[in-house]
Amino acid sequence: MRGGGPRGLASVLVSDLSDAAKRLLIGRPVRSDNLGHTLLPKRIALPVFASDALSSVAYAPDEILLTLSMAGISAIVISPWVGLAVAVVMATVVASYRQNVRAYPSGGGDYEVATVNLGPNAGVTVASALLVDYVLTVAVSISSGAQYAATAFPPLRGHEAVFAIVLVVLLTVVNLRGVKESGRAFAVPVYLFMIAIGLIGVFGFVRYVTGHLPMAESADLSLAPESAYQQGIVGLAGFFLVLRAFASGCAALTGVEAISNGVPAFKKPKSKNAATTLALLGGLSITMIMVILLLARVTGVTFADDPSTQLLRDGVPVGDTYVQHPVISQLAGTVFQGVPVLFVLVAVVTGLILVLAANTAFNGFPVLGSILARDGYLPRQLHTRGDRLAFSNGIITLAAVAIVLIWAFDAQVTRLIQLYIVGVFVSFTLSQLGMVRHWTRELRTQPDPARRAQMKRARVVNSIGFGMTGTVLVVVLLTKFTHGAWIAILAMAVVFVTMRAIHRHYATVRAELALGVDAEASRALPSRVHAIVLVSHLHRPTMRALAYARASRPNVLEAVTVAVEPDDVSALRAQWDAMDLPVPLRILDSPFREITRPVLTYVRSIRRESPRDLVVVYIPEYVVGHWWEQLLHNQSALRLKGRLLFTPGVVVASVPWQLASTEGQTGLENLGKGKTRGGKRA
Questions:
Q1: How much is the pLDDT for 36?
Q2: Which of 438, 470, 479, 413 lies closest to 140, judged by CA?
C-alpha cells in the first residue's frame, strides 16, 4: 500500500522558521523546575493583578457622571455621594476577599469557594460568570484605550477596532513570555498612573485650599435634562437613575477577584502577600475615585452622554463641533494649568493603563481555565503550561474571543460597558455566601476559643459582603438588563451549558475506558492476534512489513491485496508464488474498483467471527522528502487508516520506508560521525 509520508522538506523548513519566530517572540523554553523563579513579589503582583481595578478610575467616574447627567446639572451635585457608596462596597468586598485568600490559597478563587461550599452547579455558575467577565475586561479596557488613543491621535479615528485588535495581539505576545516578564513590563506604566492621579489630588487640594484652583473647561456649560427627568432626581424615575449611576460606578470593583485566582503566583507566604496586595488595591482605588469625583465637583466639570445636544452654552446646544474630553483629561488640564508637561504625562499614562487593564484578565482567565480543565469542565489542553511556564492555550483563547467581541461591537465602549460587571457580581455574591457557609462549618469542629472568635469575625465580614454584593447584583440587573446586560447573562448561560456538557463527555469517556474489577478485566487481553499485511506490489517496503509482522509472532498472519486491476493481481500472484513466501496471500474482490471498502469489510468479518481476537493491520508507507512528492503517490493508505481507527478491536501499524529524497532531513545523520583517531572516536 502506498501512502503519503510525514512532512517533506518544505514543511520542515516552515516548521524551523516558525520555531525560530516563536523563540524570537516569546523566548526560549523554561524548565519546569524553574517555576519558583516566576513567582511574584508584592511590588510586581500589584500592577499585574490590580491594573484592571486601578484602571477603572479612568472610566468609572465618567460613567457615574454620564448617567446622572440625564437629570441635569442638579443631579451631578450628588456624584461624590454615589462615589462614596461605591467606596463602601469596595472596602467591604476587599475585606471579604482577604478572608477568601487565607482560607482558599490554591488559586481556585470564587470557583473553588462556591464548589466546595455550595455545590458543583454553583461553582460552574461562578466560573462561567468569571470567564465571560474576563473576556469583557479585555474588550472594554482595550476598546477604551483605543478610543482614548483616537482622541489624542486623529488619524486613528474610524480605525479604533483594528487598533484595538493590534493591542490585544501585542498583549498576548507579552503574556506568552511569562507572568513575571509581563509584570515587569507593565509595572512602570501602572505605577506612573498612580503617581499621576496622586499629583492631580495633591495639586488640586493645594490649589483649592489656597483659592487658586481654576474652573474646568466645561464649567461654563449647563446640562439639559432628558424629558423623563425634568424634575431632577425626585420620584421613582430619579431613584432608579441614582441606582443606575451607582451600578455603573461599581465597575470599579472589577478585577478584585483576580487576586484570589492568582494566589499561587505570589511568593511565599502566598496568602499573606495576596491579602496585603488586596488591601493596597482597595485603598488606592477608593482614594483615586473619590479624589476625581470631588475635584470634578469643585471645578464644575460638566459631562454628558450626548454632549452635542445635552450641553448648553447660553441656552444653545454646543453642537457636533464640541469635543468632550474625559473627566481625567479635564481635571489634568485644570489642575496643571501652566504645567503642560504634567498634563501630557497624565494623558499618556491614562491611555496606557486602560490598555494594560486587560493584563489582569490575561493572568486570571488562564489560571481559572487551567483549574476548570483539571476538573473536566474545559478542554484538557487548557490545563498545561507552555514553553514559558505560562498557560499559553488559555492566553490565546482569551485573546481570540476578545478580538471577536471587539470586532463585533466595533470597539465602542458605550456599547460594551453595558455588558460589564454583571458576571463579576454574580461571582462576588455566590463567593461570599460560600464563605459564610465555610465559616459556619468550620465553627462546628473548632474547639479553640481564640480561633472560634476569629472565625466568627470573619463570618460577619463575609455576611456583610454577601448582603452588599447581592444588593448590588440586584441593582445591576434591574438597571442594566434592558441596556445590554441580558447579552452577558445569555453568554454566561451558554458557557455554563457548554462546560456541563464537556464534563459529562469526560465522565462518559472515563467510565467507558475504565477497567472493571470483575471478569471483564480479563477481557482486556485478546485471545488471539490476527495480523494482516496490506500489499499493493511486491517490493522492498512490502518485504519489510512482512518481516516486521512475522517478528511480532501473531497467531494468524496473512497478506491481503485488493483486486482492482486483474492484470496487476495476476502478476502479483505469480511473483508471490515464484518467491515461495511463507505467508498466504488473500485477494479481495472489488467490483467497483474500491480499496478501502473491501478491506474494511474483510476486517469486520474477522471481528464478527472472533470478537475476542485483536486484528493488527500493517500498512507499508513511503516517507518522501519533498512536498511535491506527496502529490505523486496514492493517498489510499491515509484514507484507510482514518476508517480503521473507528473499527473496534483493530490496531493499525504503519511500516515506513524512507525514499532517497529524505536523506539529510532528520538531523541525526551526523550523530556518531566525527573525526576518529586510531579507529576510536576523537
A1: 47
A2: 413
Residue 96 pLDDT: 85
Separation between Cα atoms, residue 483 and residue 506, nearest integer Å: 38
Q: Provide the residue ranges of all domains of the chain, joining segments of one domain with +.
A: 41-442+452-506, 520-661
pLDDT value at residue 631: 55
The fourth-level CATH superfamily of domain 41-442+452-506 is Amino acid/polyamine transporter I (1.20.1740.10)
Domain 41-442+452-506 and domain 520-661 have a common topology? no
Q: Edge-to-edge strands of the sheet including 556-563?
A: 585-589, 556-563, 529-534, 614-623, 650-658
Give the dihedral sign, CA 232/234/236/240.
Answer: positive
Q: For residue 641, give the nearest of 656, 627, 651 by alpha carbon.
A: 651
C-beta separation of 361 from 246 below 8 A: no
Question: What's the pLDDT at 343?
Answer: 83
Residue 245's pLDDT is: 82
Give the whole-angstrom CA distance, residue 538 versus residue 317.
90
DSSP E strands: which ranges in 462-544? 529-534
SS3 per residue for 314-340: CCEECCCCCCCCCHHHHHHHHHCCCCH
- How many CB atoms within 10 Å of residue 409? 19
Residue listed under C-alpha cell 512532512: 7
pLDDT at 617 over 90: yes
Which of 598, 604, 596 lies closest to 586, judged by CA?
598
For the chain, how far is it from start to end, CA to CA, in angstroms? 44
Confidence band for 547, pLDDT divided at 50, 70 and 90 = very high
Report pLDDT for 445: 86
Please report, rounded to a whole number, the percentage of residues in the chain having pLDDT higher than 90: 13
The listed CATH number (3.40.50, 2.30.30, 1.10.8, 2.10.260) that belongs to domain 520-661? 3.40.50
For the record, the C-alpha cell of 672 comes out as: 556518531
Q: pLDDT of 24-81, one tens digit each?
A: 555 555 554 444 455 778 888 887 777 777 777 777 888 888 888 877 766 678 888 9
**pLDDT single digits (tens) 347-393:** 788 878 877 777 778 877 888 888 898 888 998 888 777 655 567 88
The answer to whether 622 and 2 have CB atoms below 8 angstroms apart is yes
Alpha-carbon distance of 388 to 386, in angstroms, equals 6
Q: What is the mean pLDDT of residues 148-176?
A: 81
For residue 230, the tally of other CB atoms under 10 A from its CB is: 10
